[in-house]
Specification:
A hairpin with a 2-residue loop joins strand 2 and strand 3. This protein has a six-stranded mixed β-sheet with strand order 1-3-2-6-4-5, covered by helices on one side. The radius of gyration is 16 Å and the shape is elongated. Helix 2 crosses helix 5. The longest helix has 14 residues. By secondary structure, the chain is α/β, with parallel strands linked by helices. The protein has five helices and six strands; from the N terminus they run βββαβββαααα.
Length: about 160
């Protein structure tokens, strides 16, 4: 595993802890405040802006990441609780400029409009495919139950996951 050491002193040392986070097969060691959520650390401390933040209270699914291959909501996780967990964000799916097969299918099906919710949908879909490589339409829809897309493009999103028409 590649190691990247990031040292970021929070403004109040009294509220900070040093954590080691394993993100996209890299290791990051950094100081975080104990009330910093994982989505905040991903975006504002590590520059991983692919994880989107909508509601910040577990209602929209935009911030979905994988923890140990399972979809989780980064806005509901504290960074200090994530030491040692295998975290994957949308940036971790591709190999450099080469999109993952799932990302490629989202592009081919044009399974997005504004794209804000897309990383969350893709991570939820990847989590589903990790557990069930051939999900039915119903299973895909169920996996997306906690995701909000105000563009109303869900039909294409489901098709991108199943490969169906
Ligand atoms: Fe996390 Fe909405 S930002 S569920």
């Amino acid at each position: 595993m590649a190691t990247t050491t990031v040292t970021i002193p929070p403004s109040s040392a009294a509220l900070s802890e040093v954590v080691t986070l394993h993100i996209n097969r890299r290791e990051y060691r950094l100081a975080v405040k104990t009330n910093w959520t994982l989505d905040f650390v991903l975006r504002e401390q590590l520059g991983l802006f692919g994880t989107k933040v909508g509601c910040e209270r577990g209602d929209c699914g935009s911030c979905t990441i994988l923890v140990g291959g399972t979809p989780m909501l980064a806005c509901l996780m504290l960074a200090v609780e994530c030491s040692g967990l295998a975290i994957e964000t949308i940036e971790g799916l591709s190999q450099g400029a080469e999109l993952s097969p799932l990302q490629q299918r989202f592009c081919e099906r044009e399974a997005f409009q504004c794209g804000f919710c897309t990383p969350g949908f893709i991570m939820a879909a990847q989590g589903l495919l990790n557990a069930n490589p051939h999900p039915s339409m119903e299973e895909v829809r169920e996996a997306f139950a906690g995701h909000i897309c105000t563009c109303g493009n869900l039909v294409r999103v489901v098709q991108a996951v199943t490969g169906g028409l």
